[in-house]
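[Q] Does anyone have a clean structure-token version of this?
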Amino acid sequence: MLVVASVIGAGIFFTPGQVAQLLPSPGWIMAAWLVGALLSLAGALANAELGAMYPRAGGDYVYLREAFHPAAGFLVGWLSFFAVYAGTVAALAAAFAEGVGERLGWGETAVLIAAVGVTLAVSAINYVGVRWGARANNLTSALKILALLAFVVFGPFSDAGDAERLVAVAEPGSIGPMAFGQALSPILFTYLGWNASVYVASEIQSPGRNVPRSLFFGLAICAGIYLAVNAVYLFALPLESLIQAPDAGTASALALFGPEAGAVVSVFVLVSVLGTLNATVLVGPRIAYAMALDGLFVGRAGRVHTQFKTPASAIMIQAFVAVGILLVLRSFPAALNFTVFAILLATLADVLALYRLRRREPDRPRPYRAWGYPWVPGLYFVANLAIAVAMLVGNPLECALSVGLLLAGLPFYAFFVAGRRAKGEYAEPEKRYLEPPPDV
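[A] Here you go.
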């Protein structure tokens, strides 16, 4: 449910129009969503092995640190915390506030205040205990699954749809490989969160068994729902209408069931966004927590609340960073390409860590071994590299911001390492992490 809540949120409603604009063909649209699922699955295979090997808070920060050098782990953790998770928290809070503001007639200032308020409120829920955050996560996950399944089951029975829209053919030469690669950017953003459980592996019972299962089962549920929902979108709307729809879910419900159903779906969209925001707030602080345990982040981020047993300081830091990003970006679309390019950089690094650890530590216990190694991880690496190149060509500014943020971590790494050495605390990571850190 953590994977489902992290994945299914705003993206499935807000990104299909962008995909249709780049790929004006039902067949190519469905193919792109399937490729996105397969790419995420290939990444899950690699992360399942790494997560089962290192069942600790922090995710790819831990893998890169163990495979290469603490600096590599720091940089990918830095990018994941500030660009991927804090940025996604800000974007989802903005999307939620904009949706509420549109219905209540709020101005820009009121929407921004609401976005800041919901960020702080959801962070407070996770501050007071993992169980409260998990309960909110499970409730919103169940609601969104049931609602989307109802949409998929009853949508095709509406007389307002047209099955012929699913088989329309694009004009020859109208879609090229560059457009396909750029369309995968919003799709990969929509699949963002498939690796959520590896970041809280130290808090999962039997992680060697349950981390891989959570990745595969969670992703399978999400991929099946995404393909079915996109088929209903294409059934409900002409391609031209889908391209122009900022919220494909509400537009499709209006077309299939009328204004009352459209209003209900619009409320569900907000609940879904709120659920994904909660899951993101739950996962992200574990990165800063793990880095702080190594002395590579603000020291308080590694503290566990004595009463609530949560990484409370890390949660507060993420909340304040997300609020700062909100004040700069202000809207959901502004963060999409910025965040996806950061995701691509982190996932490329994860695959390299898998290869490095297989060669350097072949005898280390691996409760799960990546299926298809070395070919499937290699294809995943090449595909993500190609998407990154397509994004560099199509969205150079957002990609440059991601790279700039990554490089900005170098002086901070030097500062934290210097502080550790001054205190006489510097040690090799292998010696510091023979056992997992204390469960939070």
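[Q] Thanks! Anything notable?
[A] Residues 88 and 119 are 11 Å apart (CA to CA).
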